[in-house]
Amino acid sequence: MAKLTKLDDIVSLCKRRGFIYQSSEIYGGLASCYDYGPLGAELKRNVRDAWWKAVVQMRDDIVGLDCSILMHPMVWKASGHADKFADLVTVCKKCNTRTRIDHLADKSDGDAAEHTEHVNIETEAAKEHDLSNKVCPACQAVGKFGEPMAFKLMFETQMGANADDQMTLWLRPETAQGIFANFRNVLDSTRVKVPFGIAQIGKSFRNEVTTKAFIFRTREFEQAELEFFCAPGTDEDWYEHWKQQRFNWYLDLGIQKENLRFRDHDPDELAHYAKACVDVEYKFPFGSGDWQELEGVANRTDYDLRQHQRGMRTMNDWFESKGDLSKITLKEEAEDYHKGPLSFFDEQNKERFIPYVIEPSAGVDRSTLAFLVDAYDEEEVKGATRSVLRFHPHLAPIKAAIFPLVKKDGMPEIATKLYDDLKGNFACFYDQKGAVGRRYRRQDEAGTPYCLTIDGQTKEDNTVTVRERDSMEQSRINIDQIKAYLREKLDL
Ligand code: ATP
Asked: Which helix (H) or strand (E) holds 35?
């Protein structure tokens, strides 16, 4: 059983073994940006692949997409991000530190607030905020805060070389909008029919006010999002379906049940258009051993497609008028609903509607951190501490390490041959340096499920020692059977 481990242990293992480094470290580092090293790049790729396999490959009703990060600014106007994607912040008058007001702790609590949701800026801004008893997390001053104000979370950039043709664009703060913007394209170019989903994995950017806890909250991160389109009236069933599917995905990949839970959003937390929202939370080992969002599953109704239809109306000449989003009349709105380009005609029931959307939205980096934390274990073995990452075999960066026991007696030749034979099927690693016990320990720290050692007996009976990571048990398997053995054990 992995114990609750301090994040520092994970951070240090990640650096030492090449999972994750601070970005731009040679220049002192860039806050909240991280690079994945050789083992980390494999791990993260395996997390992505596991998501894609479960959400796209294994389903007949879901297709994939890979959109550009830069999109037409109208996308963010219509989605609401351009005006509303902001956090309410305050500046400490004593030390000038800017903090999200929902992250401020009360003087009496003593502990930093761990609540992490982005607030609904419209409702929050309208509320009275009494900060007189709140503590600045930087200098501990109490109640010395300025007026709360909105802090925009989207990064801006310029497209075009010359001042007169330059256009201000935003780096996408979520991948979802690229899916909505391609809804019609996918309908027209494939055979999908509602109910169906479009999935995407890609980078997103948010100029977060405060970043936190290693790769948990960063300003550049990767999301894995699914927009599942269904008929109004069937949305509640699909919502339940996706809630369970996504929860089970983490369990199937080895997350321990006691570290995973659902948290339903309170009605006042919900965005005005959302019918329901639940977070899949993981018990992360920071703060006071805290439950934090891993993934959100939301019933977004028909809000997004409707908004983009409104956006399109302001840009195109379809139907009669042009205008800005707020000028669209109820009549036009009704017309769009029944004829608009983002509506769907259900051939079977002969009815047209704008599909409802169920959105499971996961963080690739955040779940990678959860998999790392959950897999991390330390145990006493023969008077020494063994650190081991008990990854699910599908996630393990290296599936098998191949060692010659010693660098002589023909062992390296046999080991290299085995390595060459396996590497086309599994991510393998060849190592002939140092005592074999130390080589095992290094692979334990990398989370490698199997080590295969060519030793003196190999030449006699064609068997190799197979050492299993978790139990450390050793058995002898015929070298010709190794590929089939690994395939079965690793379920690959
Ligand atoms: P939070 O409240 O934690 O900022 P959110 O509710 O705004 O997150 P969503 O917009 O629902 O997050 O994003 C979906 C998922 O994307 C989150 O569950 C999380 O896994 C991931 N994610 C969001 N923001 C970040 C970030 N700054 N760094 C890393 N992952 C993130």
From this structure: strand 34-36
- The helix (H) or strand (E) run that includes residue 3 is none
What does the buried/exposed string (b/e) look like for 55-85 if buried means 16 or more CB atoms within 10 Å of the residue's CB?
Answer: bbeebeebbebebeeebeebbbbbbbbeeeb
- What is the C-alpha to C-alpha distance for residues 227 and 223, in angstroms, rounded to an integer? 13
Residue 137 Cα distances to 32, 134, 141, 219, angstroms: 18, 9, 8, 20
Closest CA to 18 of 467, 385, 472, 447: 447
338 three-state secondary structure: helix
- Report the SS3 class of residue 420: helix
Number of H helices and number of E strands within the chain? Answer: 15, 25
Q: Is 390 exposed, middle or buried (0-12, 13-18, 19+ CB in 10 A)?
A: middle
The angle formed by the CA atoms of residues 350, 239 and 272, to the nearest 5 degrees, is 90
State which of 81-85, 134-138, 397-401 shows the largest mean pLDDT.
397-401
Nearest CA to ligand 1 atom 25: 217
- CATH level 3 topology of 49-80+158-371: BirA Bifunctional Protein; domain 2 (3.30.930)
pLDDT tens digit sequence for 93-108: 999 888 888 888 888 7
Please say if the pLDDT value at position 111 is more than 60.
Answer: no
Q: What's the topology of domain 398-490?
A: Rossmann fold (3.40.50)
Would you kindly state where each structural domain of the chain is located, as residue ranges?
49-80+158-371, 86-152, 398-490
Whole-number Å distance, alpha carbon 271 to ligand 1 midpoint, is: 15
CA distance 227 to 51: 14
What is the C-alpha radius of gyration for the chain, rounded to an integer number of angstroms? Answer: 26
Residue having the nearest C-alpha atom to atom 19 of ligand 1: 363
Task: Quote the CA–CA distance of 413 and 407 in Å, as a whole number.
Answer: 9
Read off the pTM.
0.91
Pocket perturbation via mutation, ligand 1, pick of 221, 277, 358, 364 by most ligand atoms within 8 A of CB:
221
| Residue 211 CB less than 6 A away from ligand 1 | no
| Size (the chain), residues | 492
Do 49-80+158-371 and 398-490 share a fold? Answer: no
295-327: pLDDT as tens digits: 999 999 999 999 999 888 887 654 444 445 676
Distance of CA 462 to the CA centre of its chain: 44
